[in-house]
Amino acid sequence: MTDDDAVTEPSVAAIGAYTPRLRVDAAAFEEAWGRFDAAGVEAKAVPEADEDALTMGIAAAQRALDAAGRDGEAIAHLAFATTTPPMAEEDLTPRLASVLGAPEDAATRTLTGSTRAGAQALAGALDAGPWGGSAGQSDRIGLVVVADCPRGAPDSEIEHAAGAGAAAVVLTPDGPGTVVDRAAHVESAPGSRFRGAGEAETTGLDITQYDREAFTAALGGAADSLDVDLSGVDAAAVQSPDGTLPYRAAGAVGVDAETIAAGETVSQLGDTGAASVFLGAAAAYDDGAERLLLAAYGSGAGANAFVVDGAVPVSVALSGECQLSYAEYLRRRGEITTGEPDGGGAYVSVPAWQRSTPQRHRLVAGRCPDCGALNFPPGGACRDCGRRPESYEAVELPGEGAVEAVTTIAQGGAPPEFVEQQSRSGPFVSAIVALDGPDGGSVSVPTQVLGDADGVGIGTRVEATIRRIYEQEGVIRYGFKMQPVERRR
Amino acid sequence: MRDAYIIGAGQTEFGAMPGESYRSLFTAAVDHALDSVPGGIDADAVDEAIVGSLGVGGRQIGLSGPAVTEHAGLDGIPSTRVENACAASGYAVRQAVQAVRSGMADVVLAGGVEVMTDMSGDAAKYWLGVSGETEWERLTGTTFAGVYAQMASAYFDQYDATPEHLSKIAVKNHANGAKNPNAHLGFECSLDDATSAPAVADPLNLYHCCPTSDGAAAVLVASEAVVDEYTAEPVRVAGVGAASERVGLFERDTYTGIDSSTMAAATAYERAGIEPDNLDFAEVHDCFAIAELMAYEDLGFCDRGEAHELVEAGATTLDGDLPVNASGGLKSKGHPIGATGAGQVAEAYKQLRGEAGDRQVADAERGLTHNVGGSGGAAVVHVLEREVGR
User: ipTM greater than 0.85, yes or no?
Assistant: First the structure.
C-alpha cells in the first residue's frame, strides 16, 4: 500500500477492552472432569447472568471512547460484531447507539456468522471511512465494537475453552495507529467450527489435521497477501480458539512464537471468538507494543490480516477477580438452572419501556424549571416543589452517586422475573442511589448494585454500567445498574 | 356532621385455610360482625357495603365487592371494592364512616378479604410485589421485604437502633398473638429464635417479616341516628385520618419514616381532639418489624430516632404504658392483605368492649388503628373510643 492510499483510510485512535470479572481455571475443570480439554488455557472469563455480547460490547465501547477522548455524539459509523448475538434476529446496533449517545444518522453494521466477524467489521469500517470529508462532519469517528461469549456442549473442547470478552476500536482520520497494510483470504474449508440455525452450542468436526490445515492455510493466505514485512511487528494477535493453535500458524503467518505470545489473551481469558484478536491487540498495546499484526480466522474458512503501526492508547479491563468453582460456573452458564418460573412478573409493556430508554440507557433526568430540582424519571409533579411543569429540562447525569438505602435479596427471595438471575448469580443487592447532578444536587434512583453485598453500604460510591435488567415478552430489556467505584478496573 | 359508631365487628381466623374460598371467608366475617352487635341486627339493616381487597391471585379481581356481599346474602345493596394494597380495608372502614357521616347511609358494612396461601411461592412473591412501584423499583429485583429492608438500612444508619430491636418487637407480637385464638402464627418465640432466623432481605430476617395469610374481617358502622337501636355501649369513631405518598420509596423525601402515616395520624388526632398520650393502646401496621419501629415515631408515640428506647423499656408490651399490637399484629396474627385494616378495627372494638380475653388491655377506653398500603403509598388511621355514659 502506498502513502497516498494511507491517507484515504481512517486510522486507529484508541482501543477499549472489557472482560467479565468472573474467572474459572483449568484446575476446576480437571477436578470436575478428570481432564481439561482446552490446551494452553489456564483460566477463562465467564459472563455474569446479566451480561451478554451487547453489554460487554457497550463496556468496551465506553472505554474506547474514553481512551480516545471522544463522545458518542461523534460516531458516524458504528459496527457491532459477534458470533453470539443475544438475539438471533433483531438489530442490536440501535440499542448500542442509544446507550453510547450516537447520532440517529450514524451508519450501523452488524456482522456475525464466524469468528472473523470482528475483522470483517474493521475492514468494512476502514473501507467506509474516514468521516472527515464534508463540512460539519470533520469531527466524526468510526467505532467497531466486537464482543463474544461462545459456548459449546459442556463436555466439548469448545466449551472448555469458551471465554468471554469485548474490544472496541475508535477510528479517526488522524489516529496514532496507522493501518499500513491489510488483506483478506478465503479457502473453502467448512466444518472446523459451526453452529446450526437455532442452536446455542458451537461444535466442530474435531478432525485435528483438517482443522489445523484450514486454520493455517487461511491465515497464511492472508499474511502472504500483505506487502509489508512482518519481521518488525512487536506482537501478533492471532485468532486463538485455544492456546496452541495460533502457534501452529506461526510459520504460515511468518512470525515467531514470541511475537504471538505478545499478542495472546487466550491463556487467561479463554476463547473469545470474534473478539480474540482485538483483545490480544489491546493487551499488547497495554504492554507497550507499537507495531501489531492482527490475524483473524473464521471457519468456513477465511482470514483477515491487518498491520497497524504506532502506539495506540488503550483502556482495558482484562483482570479477573472472582474465582468460580465448576458448579458455580455451570450455574452462571445456566446449565443447571431452569429459567423463569411461572407466577408472573412486573409488567412493563415494550412501548412503555421504549419511552423510558433515555433514562435506562443514558440517565437522562429532568430539571424542574420552577425550582431547579432534578427528577428521575422526569414527569408529573416535581418531587421537590410539587408543581407540575409544562416540561422538564433534559439533563444527562454523569452516572456516579452514593448509596442511600440498601438490601440484599437473599437466595430464594427473588420475585419470579429475577429468579433465573438469582439462580445463576446468587443473592443480589437492591439499593437506592443518590446520583450526582452535573452541576451539583442529586436525584435518587432505584438500582441493583453489582458485586458482593459486603462491599456495599450506606454512602458507598457507585457508578453506572449497562446490564440486562430482565426479559419479558421475548424482548431483552437493557438498562443501567450500578457498581462500586472501588471495583473499577 | 353526625357521629359514626362501630356497633359490631368480627373476623375469621387468619391463617392457611385451604377449605375456604374468598366468598366463604367473607361470609363468615359478616356473620361474626352481625352476631357481635349487642342488641342484635338483621342483615337487612345494612344499607351499603365497602369491601377491601388487593385481589391476590387474580381470582375475582373485577366486581369483587358484589361477588362477596351477594354471596353473603347482603342482597341488592350498593357494594364496592376498595383497593389500596394492604390498607384496602382500613380505607373501607374510612369510606363507611364517610357514608354514615354524610347521611347517605345509616348502617354500612366495611370489610376485607384476601386469599394468599393457595398458590406457589413464586406466584405469591409476584402478588406481594404488585404494590411496589412497577417500572423502576420492582425492576431492581426488590420485593416487599426488600423495600422495608432498604428503609431499615437507612434507619439503622441514621439512628441507634439495631436488628435486635426488630427481633424484640417480633418476640412481643408473638407473645400477644399466642393469646389470640384467631392468630395465624399464634405461638411464642424466643429472642434467640427471632435473632438467628435466616435472612430474607438484609437486615430483615424471617422473624422480622409477617406471614401471608387467608382471612376476612368485617366492621359495622352506624350513624348516631340509629346507634341506640343496636347497643347501649357503642364505640365511637372519634377521628379518622388518611394520606398518600409517592409509591416508590426512591421518590420520597425520607426513607426512615412514612410521611403518609405521619399525616394521617396528625389528622386523626386533630379530629379526635387528642394527643398520642391519650391513647390506651394501638394496633399498628407491622408488616415488617421495622414498620412498627417507624410507626412509633410516625404516630407520635416518641420523638424521631427514639423508637428503640420504647422497645428497650418494654413500653409497648401488653402490660406496658402503651400496648401495641395486643392482637399479635400482622407478624403473629397474620396479614391477609385486604382484611388487615378491618381486622385491626375489629381488634380495637373487642379491646374497647373488654372482650379481648387473655390479651385484654387493662382499662382500654381509647385506641388507635394504623393501616399502611404497600411501603407507604397510602395510610389510614382511626381513633376509636368507648363512649362513656351514652
Answer: yes
